[in-house]
Specification:
Blueprint lengths: L22 H8 L10 H12 L2 H15 L3 H25 L6 H8 L2 H36 L13 E5 L5 E5 L5 H16 L1 H26 L22 H12 L8 H4 L7 H30 L10 H9 L2 H35 L18 H17 L6 H25 L13 E4 L2 E4 H26 L4 H24 L1 H25 L1
Antiparallel strand pairs: 1-2, 3-4
């Protein structure tokens, strides 16, 4: 499908921040990015599964069940999964019409303009880059335990982050400076960086092998765990509320916002559009199929976990290991640890891949330094930017624990998801005759002449539902004299604003092209006026 219809970019009168890319410009970029097209639908599906099944199922599920939802964690997975389904369908339509790297960043640039695109790109750094550091921190715990099973006992300081979180008596969180540097997680980040520099097709092959292994481990866990389930552990299915978000219906939604971290990354498939063989067809397939597989696996694992072990005992760093011990299968414990280590590796691989491609697109637009879009002459990968990102992820892994950033990651992700769904509505109204290869199902309604799609509207609603408990808890922490979560969020916002104000605003390629076009128009007008005078 050739897209020739576009929306004129905003000029100075309508505001610099609202400069937008037209769909024609986006299609032109698709043919000039220089990346190698090597990924088919199976590669993309494996990419999505690889980025999704990781720290969320191995760590966050137990915490959410123990502290918020109890056995009703199954309902929490359904709520979080529904939010992702509506967003996945919206991603599918946008990816079929705008098959370029950049994910939600590119979509926001087309709908709401440059400033909104930068905000989304900065939010995606939370989702991909910083969450990758959190996953690497989780990896180090399982890897250290696995090495100990083989008689290799590493000192605690090489797998402990420099900054530690300590739960306070009032349920808030305080920070403490530890005596370690998480070199194990940092080393894993370095290995992932090397793989990504070598090439995406080679990395995709490694990822596919890891995905098969880790999904097999979880399926074995479910198959053996079914026989060890004690139905009494599911009673009451929804524990009575104990105030705030602790159990009851509020706890189900708070748990959904926690395990939403488990779904972070499925839309990384859209970041691979520029390297897909047939992106208009294959990217929607990869997004939706990977999300479906992950949701089924999550619910099955959570059902067995809460059925084998009383939910209050699952608030540990390795809830799957606790469940395996209760099943009386010591050999399975080793099997699960191997699956966790390899599974978290694939998550790091895809998250860091997605972030490098997003920065590649932002740098091509001039909003980040060009070093992030320099391609390797042989591998055709953005190697310098990938290396810089790898260094940043390794440093964050060495310093930060996983729980200090999980809520921020979920908050940034839900915001980006809401913008993606809104972009579908905007695009349908701005270009009424557009026929996307993959339209969102269920159609839409017109309210005062404005088309509102059922699927994207539900996606926006569920994004708000996911974000609300996070914001409420952050506000409560602030009122309880714990400014850490709010300070981290505000600090992140300030850094993003400074990056755009000091660099992106001054180097925007679209702004320069727009200014040049206006100057050429004025020059042509002056020429006409002079010729008329003559």
């Amino acid at each position: 499908m050739s897209i020739t219809t576009g929306v004129r970019a905003a000029g100075p009168r309508s505001g610099r921040f609202r400069l937008r890319k037209t769909l024609a410009q986006i299609e032109a970029e698709t043919n000039t990015h220089g990346l190698k097209r090597s990924l088919g639908p199976l590669n993309l599906t494996m990419l999505g599964i690889g980025s999704t099944i990781g720290a969320g199922i191995y760590v966050m599920t137990g915490t959410a069940a123990a502290n918020y939802a109890g056995p009703a964690i199954l309902l929490s997975f359904l709520v979080a999964g529904l939010a992702c389904v509506f967003t996945a369908l919206s991603y599918g339509e946008l990816a079929s019409t705008m098959p370029v790297s950049g994910s939600a960043y590119t979509y926001a640039y087309a709908s709401m303009g440059e400033l909104a695109a930068w905000v989304v790109g900065w939010l995606l750094l939370l989702e991909y880059g910083i969450s990758c550091a959190g996953v690497a921190a989780g990896f180090s715990g399982y890897a250290t335990s696995l090495l100990a099973d083989f008689g290799v006992n590493l000192p605690a300081w090489v797998s402990t982050s420099f900054i530690q979180t300590i739960p306070a008596a009032n349920g808030t969180m305080t920070l403490d400076i530890g005596h370690g540097v998480n070199l194990v997680g940092a080393f894993a980040s370095v290995i992932v960086t090397v793989l990504l520099v070598i090439g995406v097709s080679e990395s995709a092959t490694v990822n596919s092998v890891i995905v098969v292994l880790k999904v097999s481990v979880l399926l074995v866990f479910v198959a053996l765990g079914i026989k060890a389930i004690h139905p009494a552990n599911w009673v009451p299915f929804i524990p009575p509320n104990q105030g705030g978000f602790r159990y009851g219906i509020p706890g189900i939604f708070r748990a959904a916002s926690v395990i939403f971290f488990a779904y972070v990354g499925f839309e990384a498939v859209s970041c691979a559009s520029a390297e897909a063989k047939n992106p208009r067809r294959d990217v929607p397939i990869g997004i939706i199929s990977s999300l479906a597989v992950c949701t089924v696996v999550y619910i099955a694992v959570a059902a067995v976990m809460t059925g084998v072990v009383p939910y209050k005992q699952l608030g540990v760093a390795d809830p799957l290991a606790i469940a395996v011990d209760a099943m009386g299968q010591p050999w399975l414990a080793l099997f699960v640890k191997i699956g966790a280590v390899t599974g978290l590796c694939s998550v790091m691989l895809v998250l860091q891949y997605g972030q490098s491609r997003i920065f590649f697109t932002i740098a091509r637009d001039g909003l980040l330094p060009r070093i992030f879009c320099v391609l390797h002459p042989k591998f055709r990968t953005p190697w310098l930017g990938t290396i810089l990102l790898g260094i940043g992820v390794a440093a964050a892994t060495a310093l930060l624990p996983i729980d200090i950033i999980s809520d921020l990651v979920s908050l940034g992700t839900t915001t980006a998801f809401g913008i993606v769904c809104f972009t579908v509505i905007w695009q349908r109204n701005a270009i009424p005759d557009l026929r996307p290869p993959f339209p969102v199902p269920l159609g839409g309604v017109r309210i005062r002449g404005v088309w509102i799609g059922v699927v994207p509207a539900l996606g926006i609603l569920f994004s708000i539902v996911m974000a609300a408990p996070l914001l409420i808890d952050m506000t409560r922490s602030l009122l309880n004299h714990n400014p850490v979560p709010a300070s981290l969020l505000m600090g992140y916002v300030v850094i993003g604003a400074l990056c755009y104000g000091c660099y992106g605003y001054r180097h925007s390629r679209l702004a320069a092209e727009n200014a040049a076009a206006l100057a050429a128009g004025h020059a042509a007008g002056d020429t006409v006026v002079r010729s008329q005078k003559d």
